[in-house]
Amino acid sequence: LRGSVVAVVLAGLMLLSVLVACGAVGDLATDNPRMVWCHYMLWAPSINNTVAGFVEEIRLAKSYGIDGWAINTAQWFSASWAQPTMMKMIEAMEQTNFTFFMSLDMTASFPQNPDHIIDMMTTVGKSKAYHRVNSGTKLFLSAFAPNRGRVGWNWQSTLLEPLAKRGFPMYFVPFFDDDPVRALEMYPFLDGLFHWTAWPFAENLQTITPATDVAFHNACRSHRKVFMAPVSPYFNKHYCGVSPDQYGNWVFGNYNGARLWIEHWHQLIKIGPDYIQIVDWNNYPESTYIGPVVGSTGVNGTCESSGDPSVLEYDRRTFPHAAFAHLGRYFIQAYKQRRWPAITNEAVYVFYRGFSKNQHCDDPTGLGPVRNAQSMSDDINVVSLLKSPASIKLHTGDKTLSFSVHAGLRLNGFSWGLGQQAVSVIRGGAVVASKTFAKQITTQCTDSNLYDMNTFSDFVLVP
Prior knowledge:
Helix 1 packs across helix 2 (82-96) and helix 3 (114-124) runs parallel beside helix 4 (155-165). This protein has helices at 51-64, 82-96, 114-124, 155-165, 180-186, 211-222, 259-271, 309-318, 322-337; strands at 5-10, 13-19, 35-41, 68-73, 99-105, 132-133, 138-144, 170-172, 192-194, 226-231, 236-238, 249-251, 275-278, 347-352, 379-386, 390-396, 399-405, 408-415, 421-427, 430-436, 456-461. The chain contains 9 helices and 21 strands. Residues 1-30 and 296-310 have low confidence and may be disordered. The strands form 4 sheets. Strands 3, 4, 5, 6, 7, 8, 9, 10 and 13 form a 9-stranded mixed sheet that branches. Helices cover 24% and strands 26% of the residues. It is of the alpha/beta class.
């Protein structure tokens, strides 16, 4: 991200203005078409667990420019919902000419049951929707195995070679390690690497730097491997998990609404990885989703099988992330086209949380306030994507602020006011677009009196 950051005090509000300049778009070392995938949690259909519901999700994803799903599952035989759900997803993808590959989640039953993976891959790999590479000779496969890929057996002899002998050769691009050189040296048979970490774990929880993505990109280039980079809008988790010690209670980064989303996309567009994977479509417990929030909790009916399902339902109802997905279309176009596209669909986006980082909640979980919450700002963030200049009037509680924005992409942040939030777009002295947003900022905690640092997002189209 290039440009300037300016902070000024105006009408009692703190304004953070980030000018996003359009720089050069990086070039790939290969001529393969760039593709954007979205990580999809098999256990949590966004609309409903039917073919029609999956078709609706696919049509929405396609409208954003997403090419296919990276379908995450940690179970195949050990969960009664896994295979029926997968078969319905495949039927929907074949109907809509959408593609997919499997992303093995090695945090549950798969390390103990590699034969389950073999059965799954020989089943789903028959689908015409499965993504194939090398002129259709290999099936693309990824995995999440963060313990340097250690699962108790040999990936090559236990999994990849048996699959190849059955007529299902794999093109394997997993996440094994934060050190790409070490991963490629430990596993020289890999076809490439995926990097999972899309959040500012180590950069003072403010913003992400391109250093790790550049390291992965360079390591893969020097070893003649492909690189699949991650991008994610947000991360927040509180009281969702498969057991009490995994419920989670942290937020990563002072996101300033869409700042992480915008900055990381700019970085990746400049780097030019072979693939980009959005993390993700429907991981509601970790607040990383960009998919719809209209469906049920998931096929297993709970918050990752345990915890409190009401927590997940509260987030789904009250914190839509559609603005991230809609804004992401612009970046997906730039990445695929290798140049910044003309702005054809003008919009203004807003992002804000439901209550202050200092809010006290009588949280019955005993987990206390969300860790790292104090790194965040109590701001309402406004992103404008416009073909020509305009004035924007922001109503945040009992405060009103008018400010001018130039053409292009702009991010402005203001200290919020309690109450209703609304925005108007003005050109030539006339209001051309306006919207009052569904969520108010209050001094109340969640419905279950829990801490929650998730973000609300919405947008208004400018005709």
